[in-house]
Amino acid sequence: MVDKDKYVVDLKEKDLSIEKIGGKALNLAKMSAAGFNIPPAFTVSVDAYDFFIKKELEAKISEILRIIDFTHEDSISQGCSAIRSMIKSQELPQDLFLEITRKISDLPDGYYAVRSSAVAEDLADASFAGQLDSFLNIKKDDILENIIQCWASYWTDRAVKYRHDSSIGHLDTELSSAGLAVLVQKMVNADISGVTFTANPVNGTDQVVIESSWGLGEAIASGIVTPDIFVLGRDGKILEKNIKTKNKGYFLANGQNTLITIDEEDREKTSLNDDVLKMLLQIGVELEDFFGVSQDIEWAIEYRKDESDQDVDKYKMLNNPEKTSLKIYILQSRPVTTLNEDKDDILWTRAYGDEYWADATTPLFYDVMGKMLTDYVNHEGARIMGYKEITDTELLKLHKSRVYFNSWVLEKAFSYYPKFARSKELLNYYPLEDQKRISEYPSLMHKALISQVLVAIRDPDGMMHRTDKAYRKWAQGFMEKCEDFDKTDLDTLCDEELLELYDDIENSGIKHYQLIRYGMVSHSIATNLMIKNWLVKWLDDEDGSLYAGLISGLDDNKTVEMNIKFSDLAITSREDPALLGKMNAIEDMSLLDESKIDEMISSNPDFKRQFDQFIADYGHRSNTREILYPRWREDKAYVLEVIKLLSSSDLDLRKNESESRANRFKTEKEVSSRIKKLRGGFFKEKTFKVVLNLAQTYLTFRENQRFYLDHLLFRQRLMLRDMGRRLAEKQIIDDVDDVFFLYEKELFSFFDTSDLQKTELNGNTLSENILSLQEEILKRKKEFYRYKSSLPPKFLKNGIEFDDTVTEYDQNAIYGAAASPGIFTGKARVVESIEELSQMEDDEILITSNTDPAWTAVFSKVGGLITETGGILSHGAVISREYRIPAVTAVKGATTLFKTGEKLVVDGNEGVVYKKE
Known about the structure:
Helix content: 40-55%
Strand content: 15-25%
Radius of gyration: 31 Å
């Protein structure tokens, strides 16, 4: 018998059960009953839903369920639609209506969240989470309507199909695995939001980590801002403070989450003072004690103004603590899930991974490129060369959206290098405590020679004099295949045809990976390190200026050619004041659609011709290699943004490149002349010339392979998005781009023609996989956007993350690796994402984690470069030498050590950065 007096349940009541109020509400109720401050809330219980359905609609719903054919999607869809319509149109029984409306009328003014709270969603074997509707920013007058909408969402196609396949009775709400409550909770008009971890998710210690930013938590969750990070001891001592630039924040305004720009003087201020940090610490420890396990706590702070001062801004209130009071609301608390994972006793290094994945990585991109690097660069390459120890070892790990390499595999591969080749840049892939051991590891030169013989026999294209020619031949054929691909309308292909096309493009790209395993991994590194070593040994080129001169101004560098075309477009726009005025008048180019862009560029026929040709030649590139993001052909506004940025400078990269080429010819003559004068100079000069030619060839190879890889990834992206479109149309995923948060096996299981594969994966039915994948996708997206603007520590072992200690010569000197010679003094500009490049001013020092080819269009404005990763052959180092920009790479923690506006000295000769007093 239903308890009619308890249709509405206050969360402060004790001894509530999941069967009464659902999983989502139960956790909040426990905290509220224990005295923790949650936003005001009540629950419309499972009994209320049960009473409504059984009194008014049970017979009608039973009849519809009886005639649904669960083997046909159309039948399920029509039946569920009819049930939802009945629920929305049916009047509530008077007792139920009066009790709910009385509770709503007692609520204070404001906006509310109305959330489904299913009984099944928090059960270990359930897959309802995320499938039922929730509504945010609802006015009091609309709460009842949205409660009914939540009830109706119990009857979505997917939920009904899942219950049918799982033998859960649709109307049997007395079962512990069925039923639906609705949680009504006041929206917090947060001035500051964040998360508290009562165990450090980085190192597993009992340190408390607090992240915070201005406004609502949506800004952090969506990746719009990187939060401030505080690490505290249990005694309240603040161990670390990492204050980030917080340009924007979401605030609740007129029932909408509104994104506002934070005043410039407040962007770099701390979002939490010491007193508030200690309050959050105390709450966190109390919640941990209450639940008996380390907690991941979401919270929000509302500040109240003192009536005597009406002019205090929301995000300035911390600077006026005497004029404000605050309330800390607990929004959610759950166990920390990242501790003690990945215990595999392997030392994983992120440093080498950043050479391939410069940014946060989605699961699908990790699979797309990761399997190729594992199967063809590592395993097949090792078998060909006789590296028996590493022919089947796990190579990669995806951790916090960053790719880590197995350091043992790298160490074994480097043991085949001569000792002089184990440069500072290569050793930087390892912890400091291992670098000396690896540098002194005996050289397996006899095995290295045998490996070259095996390559000549088993894979002749891997020989140094053939690899570049073979790659150019492959690239020509692949570009022809791309032309054919671009004529194909993917929408017209059936699933099988789309899969066949995907396999064809992917298989055509295998040769790329088979050749870069030689061209990048051995030929480029070996020849360039030999040249660098000889220049130091024979000509005292300690600062690397001769080396930089010899490898700059090279012909057929696709990245340099792209940057020159960018420069040409900037020059054309500067010569047309009307066009330049239109561009400068638009603060955010991303707001322009295709028609507006075309209208703007068409005002200058020469500019339009150049622009269209640029898109034709380089539209497959992007500001990141990550395939989640659109390419320039899909995002022409970004190209205009770069042109606008470059048009503010009078640099001419075409002229600069001509000067670099002339300087290379001059340096080659000088070096040749000086070597000839050495003892044995004739032989040394001939040998040097041959190796230099190879070093230059494979430096260009290293840059150009990125150009053609981008062509491959662009076509793969288009096909994968089309697969995502098809899954979204079938309601398997919610959004087209959710496809990038699936792994390949998960994605292709929905396109496999095998009945076994289509109905069963990992022992579950297809409908079970669909429902559970929705929750998993959401979890992966949250992790991706949380870490996309910050680098996790460099090393990982047994689930514990750690970093090297920053090496300092003295208080003001920080050690890195010399990447491009010269010394430059200027102001720092810390750039954590490509979007921030537009803030660069002429002759600033660019400080970032790593660079990608698309970044280098703005290198003409840069005075110096500091990166957290990379070596002498990294992309940033190569382009810095091309433009004669002093650069220091491998500077641990550069983006946090240095602040925008700080005056620095970049010594690219010694690999040191000095802070000016």
